[in-house]
Write a structure and sequence with these properties.
The protein has 249 residues and is an alpha/beta fold. It contains eight helices and eleven strands. Helix 1 (14-23) runs parallel beside helix 5. The mean pLDDT is 95.
């Protein structure tokens, strides 16, 4: 299996190093990641400004070729596919230093890196964990990837969003197949030194009754595996509109 690894925290991020080490057990690895942090950039790409590329060769990750791209995670995947012509099978994106659940999926550069793979007919998996705590990923990421492969999940769906709770070595690894829930984030804009900053925090406990949501899984210390789609069509709504239109005719 040929694995392209990217992220949105930048090529020097700890989560990227963890993912590279785990991925090497499953196939050939190439790293193409943003030179600087691209958190919250979602699926944006750069179509106006020049894009700087740096060849790190194997100086960052032993035995692994690595490039940095002066742009977003989506552009990292696009550069690999359209310029390097590297025929990867799957994109592993992450490990992000913060959960990507609920509404955060829409804003996440990590998820976008995996989603870009789906756009070009490849498979993609986004990996995220609690903010600044990689314990669960450090102990169990290899096992999580093995579980996904063993269950043949990517034969059924092309895009997965994986969130990992802060587990310790002695913990029992549990999985839950989930749907997108809500983080109930209380966004505010704070004025600091003459400039506004977005602040706030999630209220995950409000999902305690939303069984099988991604947030609910994390609240119960289970690895959330949520199938995603890049098709933004509301197929149920489309069917209702068509039915209503036909009935009026």
């Amino acid at each position: 299996m040929k694995i392209l690894i990217t992220n949105d925290d930048g090529i020097h991020a700890k989560g990227l190093e963890i993912l590279v080490k785990a991925a090497q057990h499953f196939g050939e690895v190439l790293v193409v990641a943003p030179e600087t942090e691209q958190s919250g950039k979602s699926h944006s790409i750069n179509v106006r400004k020049p894009i700087a590329i740096k060849d790190y060769k194997e100086t960052l990750f032993e035995g692994v070729q690595a490039y940095s791209v002066g742009s977003t995670p989506a552009d990292c995947v696009r550069y690999t596919h359209h310029h390097l012509r590297y025929d990867f099978d799957v994109v592993f994106s992450g490990v992000n230093r913060g959960y990507n659940m609920g509404e955060d999926i829409m804003y996440s550069g990590t998820v976008a890196g995996a989603s870009e793979a789906a756009f070009i007919g490849k498979k993609g998996i986004a990996f995220s964990t609690i903010y600044n705590d990689f314990s669960g990923a450090e102990w169990f990421l290899k096992d999580i990837i093995q579980w996904i492969i063993t269950k043949n999940l990517l034969d059924v769906v092309g895009l997965l969003n994986v969130n990992i709770p802060p587990l310790q070595k002695e913990d029992i690894l549990e999985f839950q197949l989930t749907f997108q829930g809500s983080t109930h984030y209380d966004t505010r804009f704070d004025l600091e030194n003459g400039a506004y900053y977005q602040r706030g925090k999630p209220h995950l406990y409000r999902q305690k009754e939303n069984l099988n949501s991604d947030v609910h899984a994390i609240l119960h210390e289970k690895v959330s595996i949520c199938p995603l789609t890049v098709d933004r069509t509301d197929h149920i709504g489309l069917g209702k509109i068509k039915k209503k239109y036909i009935e009026k005719k």
